[in-house]
Amino acid sequence: VKDLMRVIADAEAMPVRPDAIIQVGDFGVMWPKYTQKMDTYLHERESNGYEFPIVTCGGNHDNWALFNKLASETTDDLIELVPGSGVYYARRGSVIDIAGITHGFMGGAWSTNGHALTEGVDYWPGLEEPTQADMRAFYDNVLDKKPDTIVTHEAPRSINFDRRGRNSNKTVRMLDDMFYNWQGEGYKPNRWY
């Protein structure tokens, strides 16, 4: 939450305010270590209003049981976490227009630290990582709609940064294949976040 508050403070200090903040996961949404701070923040936004929406794709350190429950209750691709808060989860595989820029969203990842977490409390094996069906639907949706940007929690290995477990991470490998195959189909996003 403190990182988010810093990003919001920076955005509010800009001479031209952003249309939205897009967050790439590990938001701590309804995740036990952050629940009280995040819950307070979400309800403050609901009560006091907000200048711009916040959209997360969700990471492995988010409550996927909650995301999946909320997603099952609507067909919308942007799912508001607390009504009136302006904080949204972008459904896996969705392509959403935000202020005239289309974004393809694929959240989640394998938790490399799962051994140190508690299942159902701060770890949701089987829910955190996108499935092959999720990835296939995302692949097809992106090829159909050709979004300007791609927003994922993990990144393909072609985006170089040092992180433990990346080479053995199934999500990363699936994104590698997807990016390579998209290029073969003539699609390359303008940006990948």
Tell me what you see in this structure.
With 193 residues, the protein is an alpha/beta fold. The protein contains five helices and eight strands, in the order H-E-H-E-H-E-E-E-E-H-E-H-E. The protein has a four-stranded mixed β-sheet with strand order 1-2-4-3, covered by helices on one side. A four-stranded mixed β-sheet has the order 5-6-7-8, with helices on one face. Helix 4 (132-145) runs parallel beside helix 5. The protein is globular and about 50 Å long. The two termini are 20 Å apart.
Question: Hey, roughly how much beta strand do the residues contain?
Answer: 15-25%
| Overall outline | globular
- Based on secondary structure, the structural category is alpha/beta
Order of helices and strands: HEHEHEEEEHEHE
Keywords:
193 residues; alpha/beta; 4-stranded mixed beta sheet; 5 helices; 8 strands
In short:
With 193 residues, the protein is α/β, with parallel strands linked by helices. It is 33% helix and 15% strand.
Q: Topology of this protein?
A:
Elements: H1 2-13, E1 21-23, H2 35-48, E2 54-56, H3 64-72, E3 78-80, E4 87-90, E5 95-98, E6 101-106, H4 132-145, E7 149-152, H5 170-184, E8 191-192
Parallel strand pairs: 1-2, 2-4, 6-7, 7-8
Antiparallel strand pairs: 3-4, 5-6
